[in-house]
Amino acid sequence: MISDSLLPIICSSPHHTSLSNHLLLLILWRSGAMGEKPTKRAVDEAQQTKYDEAFFDRLINLTYQRSEALGLVFRKRLELYRLESGPLLPHQNYLRAVAMALVDMPQERGVGVEIGDHDADGEGARKTILEEYLSYMEDEGLTDTSRSCPRELVDLLTRLVGQGGARDIYDPSCATGRLLTSMVVNTDADLATYVTGFGQSSRKDDIFHALLRAFNTSDWLLFEKADAIQSPPTGHDQLKTFDLVISDLSDGLDAWSFEAYETDPYHRFRFGLPSRAKGEFAMVQHMLATMRRHDGVVVVIVDQSVLLRSGKDAEVRQALILANLLDTVIFLPQKLFRGDARRLAVLVFKASRADANVLVINGTGDFVSSKSLNKLTTDSIHEIAVSFESRTAVAGKTLLISTEEFRGNDYAVSLNRCFPRRRTALDLDIVDLIKEREELQSQLLETSKSIDLLINSLSDQ
């Protein structure tokens, strides 16, 4: 595993963050992703190589031959490094140590997004190393990328819809590409048919990481720097459609291209005008417009507040439910993202549904907690997936809600209303607790005054 072997070596240098582009090129080179397979003399080569500017220029040229976009980004990043930091001579021993560690990587399956078969040279294991290193930088905040979907949440979504045989997958807000890459690599499609993935993000650092994942895993992954609302995927003057449209919108869309609503030539916003301040339902409508008309599926991760908001968002939510598109709501635990205590939900929409009931799954109970972060367990992922597949009501776990019931609740979907908690002797009413605290403070003040009077009276004697 990279955490046991490579990361300590990488982190041994105080300059490892500024040298991250060089490290990424080294990993790609040693994995064979550039077309140069590691030779039997790899150890000697790694020991004798001079890791200077000319060496990394050669690696960039190899990258450019397979991906012009990625090669150009690497060149710009390394030129910026040279302007700011100078030559690589002081880091020769450090880069050589990393290269040697890559040569010596064990022939075993790594963790994270599992990529490729593991041949005798350990190419698959080394490809997994790149995913581990990218995830490390993203999770530790060492890059300017958007936050990436947690690995456990990726595993859940892969389990829910990755077995559906989707041939083409689209993520309009792909961030660093971790979710889309996993869906393409791990989907259970016919081996004779390639699974394609297309992702969009308006942030250049996101696209850099996404291009790295595509370069390292599949020629059938494509990422584009673009705002999906303003520049949707099109062909022959029509919107492209996909078997599966999936995205993580849990960080919110506080700023979205509102003007696209009135001028949209593709009529994507037929369910109503979303809120100007919150754009999740704008993106959801875009996703619905790009799913296959008869058998497409949309999966989106959102903040649970999306299910409760009033005003414009409530009108859009009502229209989606009445159109019989919302299939499943899965409530998730809070604090699945570092530094974010909000509760999330997974929404599943389907173009064709057998009935009008919406399945609601309570997935908030089973997780492991580590400091300020919660993680879904393997058992909880399995239980949620089984509930999703069976669509049966189980007290406290799953619920089927009819359109009439939604109407009675103003088309809001509340965790506490769907799965009310039983009050116990340990439950405390916060208002009563505040009142009790105030009374105790008052009593303490009075007692303090009495003590002062007693001391003063004794002093006068």
Q: Can you characterise this structure?
A:
The chain is α/β, with parallel strands linked by helices. The chain folds into three domains: 2-139; 151-418, Vaccinia Virus protein VP39 (Rossmann fold, 3-Layer(aba) Sandwich), CATH 3.40.50.150; 428-461. Helices cover 44% and strands 14% of the residues. The protein is built from 18 helices and 13 strands. It has helices at 2-5, 7-10, 20-31, 42-48, 53-66, 68-85, 92-103, 123-139, 151-161, 178-186, 204-217, 260-263, 280-289, 312-322, 378-390, 403-408, 415-418, 430-460, and strands spanning 168-171, 196-201, 221-225, 234-235, 238-239, 244-248, 297-303, 326-334, 343-350, 358-362, 367-370, 373-376, 398-401. A nine-stranded mixed β-sheet has the order 3-2-1-6-7-9-8-10-13, sandwiched between helices. Strand 1 (168-171), helix 10 and strand 2 (196-201) form a beta-alpha-beta unit. Helix 3 packs parallel to helix 7 (92-103) and helix 9 runs parallel beside helix 15. The radius of gyration is 27 Å and the shape is globular. Mean pLDDT is 85; it is low at 107-121.
- Physical arrangement of strands within the biggest beta sheet: 3-2-1-6-7-9-8-10-13
| Shape-level CATH architecture of the largest domain | 3-Layer(aba) Sandwich
Q: What is the CATH class of the largest domain?
A: Alpha Beta
Helix content estimate: 40-55%
Rg of Cα set: 27 Å
Number of domains: 3
CATH topology of the largest domain: Rossmann fold
Strand content: 5-15%
Number of helices: 18
Low-pLDDT segments, ≥5 res: 107-121
Mean pLDDT: 85
| Principal-axes shape call | globular
